[in-house]
Fold Cobalt transporter.
Amino acid sequence: MSQSLSSNSHSGSIVAPVAIPISALVPWAIFTIVLSLLLLYFVGAEQGATSLISGHEVHEFVHDGRHLLGFPCH
Ligand SMILES: [Zn+2]
């Protein structure tokens, strides 16, 4: 059985990539953009007057990321 599997991988056949229609990608692109903007907000602006969540838990959780990306902090 293992010999037949290994012999198939050396047959030289070319595997064509599967075409994905744009309409199937749009929801994932929108989801990725929204998730990225949400992450950017929490890392870059979730503090002080622009804070949506009271307390310092979110600020402290993303604190190293904030400094790594060069956002002003303290
Ligand atoms: Zn800081």
